[in-house]
Design goal:
The complex is a heterodimer of chains A (145) and B (200). With 145 residues, chain A is mainly alpha-helical. Chain A has six helices and no strands. Chain B has a domain of 125 residues: Rossmann fold. Helix content of chain B is 32%, strand content 12%. Chain A: Keywords: Cytokinin signaling pathway, Cytoplasm, Nucleus, Phosphoprotein, Sensory transduction, Two-component regulatory system.
């Protein structure tokens, strides 16, 4: 496919990610940093690191919430980590869910936490898919140049 | 030969246990022309700085040698084990490191936390996510501490000398310091922006 058409696809994807609140201004900051710094792989790198990190944290959370007695302090600590890294990359939806999740931890609401984890997982998977598509499109565009 | 080397980039040590955050702060710093070293914990930071965790009062011979000279430390607050606050305390307890400016970062805007850090000697507090515009706040702290170091060295060597230098002139006799950044008596604790966290 021609680079122009790929560009259009990429722009449409990015627009929809912003419009739906999946990513926020911080993600735009990352894009600008990439351009300003002349470091083409920067966004890809940060996004990939975030996804690996989030994946790991979600697994840990699942394990903690399966325990007969839930250690809410540990759960909260992990959610705090996820909230932090999602804020840093501009993953707005995930960040907001984490904020609610933390409240549920503080309330020691086990069922609430389990539901929140399910929501975070879904939102994260959705975001990750879109990030992956974004990176693939960028690679294809690069290959054309 | 220039006394103050402004040609070589300033070296910042960034401490954060989160990998994406480390990448981000590294890029922000490099984009702002800093040389960067990142570590993922307070204890690794202390190691890098040449002091041992359990022996903060040890005068490190290495800390001011050129190859590991650190001009500023920027650290996350919430880290497992040694928090950014703990790290700050250790740095301030160390005779060889206490003059290095320290900036604390946190994703949480908690006034008591911010005040505690500033009272312990942090020069600045950044709310995460840190932005490019925050980077411009770093250099003044570095310059201030370098001027202070340079001034203190001069004081030791030449009592009555009033050499002009590249930084704002202290003029130890008069109090007309136009930048207001340094006075002869104190340690440069007067920081107009000290108590104001960044607003996003």
């Amino acid at each position: 496919m021609a680079a122009a058409a790929l560009r259009e696809q990429l722009n449409a994807l990015l627009s929809s990610m912003f419009a739906s609140g999946l990513v926020d201004d911080q993600f735009q900051q990352l894009q600008m940093l990439q351009e300003d710094g002349g470091t083409p792989g920067f966004v890809a790198e940060v996004v990939t690191l975030f996804c690996d990190d989030a994946d790991r944290i979600i697994s840990e959370l699942a394990a903690l919430l399966e325990q007969p007695i839930v250690d809410f302090d540990k759960v909260d600590a992990y959610v705090h980590q996820l909230k932090g890294s999602s804020a840093s990359v501009g993953a707005q939806k995930v960040k907001f869910t984490c904020m609610q999740f933390r409240q549920l931890c503080q309330d020691k609401n086990r069922d609430g936490c389990i539901m929140a984890l399910a929501v975070v997982r879904n939102e994260f998977y959705d975001l990750r898919n879109k990030f992956q598509t974004m990176l693939q499109l960028e690679q294809q565009i690069q290959a054309q140049q | 030969m220039a006394v103050v080397a402004t040609e070589t980039p300033f070296h910042v040590l960034a401490v954060d246990d989160s990998l994406p955050d480390r990448k981000l702060i590294e890029r922000l710093l490099k984009t702002s022309s800093f040389q960067v070293t990142t570590v993922d914990s307070g204890s690794k930071a202390l190691q890098f700085l040449g002091i041992h965790d359990d022996d903060a009062s040890t005068v490190s011979v290495h800390a001011h040698q050129l190859d590991v000279a650190v001009n500023l430390i920027i650290t996350d607050y919430c880290m497992p084990g040694m928090t950014g606050y703990d790290l700050l305390k250790k740095i301030k307890e160390s005779s060889s490191l206490r003059d290095i400016p320290v900036v604390i970062m946190s994703s949480e805007n908690i006034p008591s936390r911010i005040n505690r850090c500033l009272e312990e000697g942090a020069d600045e507090f950044f709310l995460k996510p840190v932005r490019l515009s925050d980077m411009s706040k770093l250099k003044p702290h570095i310059l201030k501490s370098r001027c202070r170091d340079h001034y203190q060295q001069e004081q030791q060597h030449q009592q009555s000398d009033s050499n002009s230098n590249d930084c704002s002139n202290p003029t130890n006799k008069s109090s007309s310091d136009s930048t207001g950044k340094r006075k002869a008596e104190d340690n440069g604790e007067i920081l107009p922006q000290k108590n104001r966290p960044r607003h996003s």
